[in-house]
Amino acid sequence: MDKKPTKRKTSETIKSFVKFLISIKKYRGWIILSIFLATGSALLGIFIPKILGDMTNIAVNTYQDIDFSAIIGKVWLVVGLFVGSAILNYIQAYILTVVSAKYTRDLRNKIIDKIAKLPISYFDKHKYGDTLSRMTNDIDVLATSLSQEITDVSLSSTMLIGITVIMLTISVPLSLVAFVVVPLSVIVVGKIMGHAQRYFNERQNTLGVLNSRIEEDYAGQIIIKSNSHEEASLQDFNNVNKKLAKITMRAQFLSSLSMPVTHIFTNLGYVIVAVLGGIFTINGQINIGSLQAFIQYVSRFNRPITEIASTTSTMQSLLAASERIFEFLSEPEEEPDPDPAKTIEKVKGEVEFHNVNFGYFENKPVIRDFSVKVRPGMNVAIVGPTGAGKTTLINLLMRFYDPTSGYITIDGVPTREMKRSDVRRLFGMVLQDTWLFSGTVEDNLRYGNQGATLADVIRAAKSSNVHHVIEALPKTYHSEISEDSDNISAGEKQLITIARAMVANPPMMILDEATSNVDTRTEQLIQDSFEKLTHGRTSFVIAHRLSTIRNSDLILVMRDGNIVEQGNHKELLKANGFYAELYNSQFAEN
Amino acid sequence: MLKLFKFLKPYWWQVLILILATGGQVFATLQLPALMADIINNGIVAEDTGYIWQTGVIMAGIAAASAACSLLAGYMSARVGANFARDIRAAVFEKVVNLNIVDIKDYSTASLINRTTNDVNQVQEVTMMMLSVMLLAPMFCIISLIMAVRTAPDMTWIIAVGIVAILASVIIIMSLVMPKFKIFQKLIDKITLITRENLTGLRVIRAFNNERLEKKKFEKTNDELTRLSIFLDKILKLEGPLVNIIFNGLTLLCTYIGISLLNKDFAYLGNMSAFAQYVSFVMMSFLMMSIMFVMLPRANVCAGRINEILRINPKIKWLKETKGLPNKVVSVEFRKVDFRYPGAEEKVLDGITFTANVGETTAFIGSTGSGKSTLINLVPRFYEATSGEILINGVNIKDYTKEDLIRRIGLVPQRGILFAGTVKSNIMFGAPNATLAQVKKAAEIAQAASFIEKLPGEYNAHIAQGGTNVSGGQKQRLAIARAICKNPDIFIFDDSFSALDMKTDAKLREALTPITKDMVVLVVAQRVSTIKNADQIVVLNEGKIVGKGKHKDLLAKCKTYQEIVKSQLSEREFNKEMKVARG
Q: What is the DSSP track for A174-205?
């Protein structure tokens, strides 16, 4: 368990830093300008304590008859300095705000663009949450830390250098005190924080364990209750919870140490400077105004140092976030469409698989040497037990995936020589997973055919038996719906996706019949709409209903990813193979 | 938020030490500028080196004391905070685990999880902030004020100017920004939503060639977000320069006023810089408090969400001791059972009456919303009947202890829910004392043995959280094995077979027959084929029983049942079935 979080190698850090710099190149002029402004702002600010000290000196030297005109001059100088400094500061912050907002906007657009260009296989292998978190969390990290970082680094380094110079000009010995004490505190705090970081990492892990425990137990409530497992679950939870509290305490305590440690060092520095400075003043080595100025500089000295120290850790997370984004952006994209691409003018709807081989993984073939000819207007049923790979055929037809060898033709034209979008335009698709986007019903129905009129939309809705459902919604066709809206049922969502396919009016259809959690009446409506949809069209149906299977012209029987049999219902029953077995087990009475 | 502070009660003395230590630290720190002024006034001006050294030593001592106090405060605050969060988390978890399903039905699992984790973290963070900042800042503020007034009473008005300036700037900026923050959050949510939709709807988007449309939609929201975030930042970024101007302005004011007062009293030479420091302390504490007030509402929302859970009053009360103690369950009987969700008007179940006997299978079928799942959830008292009685061996289930009732029930829910652990630990979930042989037997009956034996480690094979490393059908079979292993008297299947292919379904039912002969079996099903052979089929429609009997009788008499069968069979098969039914 002693695995420390792997430290990023310096070379890698530099590499991702360079990548990051290249990505932001477009804005380099603005960034450089803002660095100049920040430097200017810091420089102006640095002189303020010194001039205040000068004011005191003038007062002390001309005591009894204080030279107010000289002092007033200094006052205006100081006002000019801090107002100028603040203005420069604001201008540079403003520039960086715009730059970082635009930069992250561009990145977001790039990500959404990339999502459209990546092959489907990428998303079948990666979790959605992963991509989503790049779009949200990582971009968020960039957006918040980018402008802050640039400002901090330029302000702090200018201040650090400037203060050092001024302190040296006031008094070399006093400066030495500050130079030893202040960096020492930063180093000690850094050490402590490094130690605390270990506990924070451990805390993060334990928190993860606790969270998954909670998630599991809440999701499995029914099982816990029906097995009287409450006590045991509580005990498990408490063990982790107690451990978490212990580690949290350590982590918090260690990190809270940084305050007193910094304090004691700054206070110590303060005291030493006060005592030594006092003695120096008596000895006439420095004057009293300079001492007061110096004390102010000492208290300002540790801020840029801690800020620069914390910059390195924010920089790390900024780079990690940008790296995750660039990694995603550089994933290999879908093979480009052929140019020039073949097109089909008037589709008859003849689909043929020629010796198709395919596998999702290199040495795991899923479809082996599969050939079939589907004549125009044929209804093809794909059957098989769950997990047999029925969707693979759909993936190949729609060119979500391409065969490893062999090819598919539509009306004799190999689909691989066509544009993907042209192939997909030929098919309407209704899947089990009823995906609706959040928007109005009308927008959703028009999704496959932006040019459709409201009349077209209503006609399709009527024909797929969903018109009355939509009419019953508060704003009828203008009602807002979404994937997880609960004002319409799962079955009704399916009807909407059918209507959506109807509005698109494609020459061929791909359907998934599986309907779970749908009541009998809706089921009948869906079936009726399916029939209308496939009528006279070449169609591929992942079939679950016996009636569909029996009425189809061709049945493809799949098992463990392979097509094991093909033919119509009668032929397959006669063959007495896997299909017959499947069929009989469903109504296994005789 | 305040209500949650009762969780601080066991730690009251630690909080007390924390307060004292914080006070000590503030007090000590604030002595330093005054002592510095003394060095200038009494040491430097009077050219008294001894005095300087002496004061220096006192200052060093005070610095050390301050550090010690802040060390102690840090320790206490870490300790109190961690334990405080632990206790709240445990209280929420315990509450949720012990509440009944009906009590938490209105909360999604995600929301409950959030309340137990993120919300508690938020509350902890803010409480810790409060314990440090809220204690520190006012103390700092008050003591600085006192010290400031004491060092330079003539300059006190400068503090008032400072406070007004800083509060005005914070309030103006916040009032400009706050209303827009909600919109900002909405836009962020919308960006997430569209991205999610692009991911989940990948295939549909590509099937309809709508990549460009989606992109346009996204870019529109993205532009809006960018514009708003620039607007917000433009204002927020004013804060830093403004605060700088105020601080510098005050320091300048102190110096100038101090100088102009020198003629009156030369002590202002040392006092003015001490005063300037105190003023900046006062300003700092106001800034800290204003941050606090921005954070507080958010924590308050979280605290409210936690309290909501802690306040839930369980609707179902269990007896401590069983009144009637039947040995073996021979019957489960529903007598005119009604059920409606609390607050709802419509009945989910209406006048349900039936008896299920030992050795028989009673099946429930009906469309979604017919109430069949609710019905079987009444047996383990996940929900409580609104009226009517549910009896086991003639004894009302309310007269059983929880232990006693649950022990007799083996429930297989709709989704196969598994827990992280091993195959064995999952099967033994309801029967902690089962032997390996019993586990294996249960797996065999559940048709799970064959795939378990192919797993690395077999019965010790690792099951990931949520069972993500086994398929849906396998999960379901493990869930069935878990219920079998418990050796219950009442077996409840809530649509548990739909994830299985028809062949496995048939095999499983065959294997179950011998062990269910001395059990009461209740089955909810979607597929007619699953329940065709049941001894009694209860057909539900809109919460009412519309048919009760065997498959053949129902086919002949019950219209709803006919409709259901018809939807699952082809015309010809249906006619054949009907013919058989009519004899």
A: HHHHHHHHHHHHHHHHHHHHHHHHHHHHHHHH
Which residue is closest to A107 within chain B, CA to CA? B222
Residue B583 maps to a domain: no
Band of pLDDT at residue A91, cut at 50, 70 and 90: very high
Please tell me which of the candidates A109, A226, A518 has its beta carbon nearest to residue B368.
A518
User: Hey, what amino acid is at A151?
Assistant: T
Secondary element (H or E) of residue B301? helix B268-311
Domain for residue B582, yes or no?
A: no
Identify the domain containing residue B431 by its residue range. 417-487
pLDDT at A80: 92
pLDDT of A1 over the 60 cut: no
Residue A266 pLDDT more than 80?
Answer: no
Supply angle C-alpha A299, A302, A308, rounded to 5: 150
Q: What is the reported pLDDT for B345? A: 66
Residues B179 and B279 in one domain: yes
Domain of residue B474, CATH code: 3.40.50.300
Is A421 at the interface with chain B, CB within 8 A?
yes
Q: Based on the domain organization, do A493 and A532 belong to the same domain?
A: yes
3-state class (DSSP) for residue B185:
helix
Nearest Cβ partner of A226 from B195, B409, B573?
B409
Assign B463 a pLDDT band (cuts: 50, 70, 90). confident
**Residue A587 reports pLDDT greater than 50:** no
Task: Using an 8 Å CB-CB cutoff, list chain B residues near A435.
Answer: 197, 200-201, 203-204
Indicate yes or no: CB of B40 within 8 angstroms of CB of A278. Answer: yes
- How many folded domains does chain A comprise? 3
Structure tokens at A8: 């990023």
- The enclosing H or E element of B39 equals none
User: Does B23 lie in the same domain as B104?
Assistant: yes
Please report residues of A whose CB lies closer than 8 A to that of B275: none
In whole angstroms, give the CA distance from residue A21 to residue A89: 23
Same domain assignment for residues B463 and B500: no
**Overall average pLDDT of the A365-370 stretch:** 79
Tokens found for residue A115: 């999502």
Same-domain pairing of B498 and B478: no
Mean pLDDT over the full length of chain A = 80
Total domain count, chain B: 3
The pLDDT tens digits for A468-510 are 778 777 778 887 776 665 566 777 777 888 888 888 888 888 8
B476 and B514 assigned to the same domain: no
Per-residue pLDDT at B239 exceeds 80: yes
User: Do B40 and A288 lie within an 8 Å CB cutoff?
Assistant: yes
Residues 6+ apart with CB under 8 A from B91: B7, B310
